[in-house]
Amino acid sequence: MERRAPKKVVFDFPEPGSEAAAARMNAPLFAWVVENLLRNALDAMGGEGTIRARIYEEGDYTCLDLSDTGKGIPSGKFNTVFKPGFTTKKRGWGLGLSLAKRIIEEYHHGKIFVKSSEEGKGTTFTIKLPRAGREEGAELREVKLEG
Ligand SMILES: Nc1ncnc2c1ncn2[C@@H]1O[C@H](COP(=O)(O)OP(=O)(O)OP(=O)(O)O)[C@@H](O)[C@H]1O
Ligand SMILES: [Mg+2]
């Protein structure tokens, strides 16, 4: 994704291996979710800005924060953006976040939400996945979640 992004977009991600955290996930589906969030972040930034990823543990969850310095989401729309069909883009389907929510919440028994956003400043999405060793989910396998 970094290679395909505009040159003025800075990617601030943990060094691979530096913050490895175990979480139960279906790797291809999880990658699809992250790619959709990154695509949205790029769309919100108009070619310039910073995308930052942070991984941390919180209670029974491994968490990933993805932040951008884009146009932001109005505070009344933090939940609306996850509804199927909601889009503000000319060529948007409004499906990315609704599918992401299903993949994270129904399939992975995790959570995804807008953690914070300020119009004109940027947005942080959080994904929380049950930590490895708990919550037996069908077909889920243990993989390393690295930056
Ligand atoms: N990082 C972000 N910053 C600002 N607005 C966002 C961000 N992510 C999502 N949004 C808003 O939420 C809407 C819904 O996002 P979603 O990914 O579901 O659909 P989409 O990107 O419009 O279309 P697509 O189906 O191609 O993903 C977007 O149109 C945009 O208005
Ligand atoms: Mg999208």
Describe the structure.
With 147 residues, the chain is α+β, with helices and mostly antiparallel strands. It has one domain: Heat Shock Protein 90. It contains 2 helices and 7 strands, in the order ββαββαβββ. The strands form 2 sheets. Strands 1-3-4-6-5 form a 5-stranded mixed sheet. The C terminus is likely disordered. The protein binds adenosine-5'-triphosphate and magnesium ion. Magnesium ion binds next to helix 1.
Concise synopsis of the structure shown:
The protein is α+β, with helices and mostly antiparallel strands and 147 residues long.
Keywords:
globular; 147 residues; binds adenosine-5'-triphosphate; 33% strand; alpha+beta; 2 helices; 21% helix; binds magnesium ion; disordered C terminus
CATH superfamily heading:
Histidine kinase-like ATPase, C-terminal domain
Percent in helix: 10-25%
Q: Which fold name fills CATH's third level, the topology?
A: Heat Shock Protein 90
Number of helices: 2
How much is the radius of gyration in Å?
Answer: 15 Å
* Main β sheet profile: 5 strands, mixed
Low-confidence stretches: 134-147
Structural class: alpha+beta
Shape: globular
What gap, in angstroms, lies between the N and C termini?
13 Å
Strand order of the largest sheet: 1-3-4-6-5
How many domain modules? 1
The helix/strand series, from N terminus to C terminus, equals: EEHEEHEEE
Let me know the number of strands. 7
Query: Could you say what the CATH architecture is?
Result: 2-Layer Sandwich
Strand content: 25-35%
Give the distinct bound molecules: adenosine-5'-triphosphate, magnesium ion
The average pLDDT value, as a whole number, equals 87
CATH class: Alpha Beta
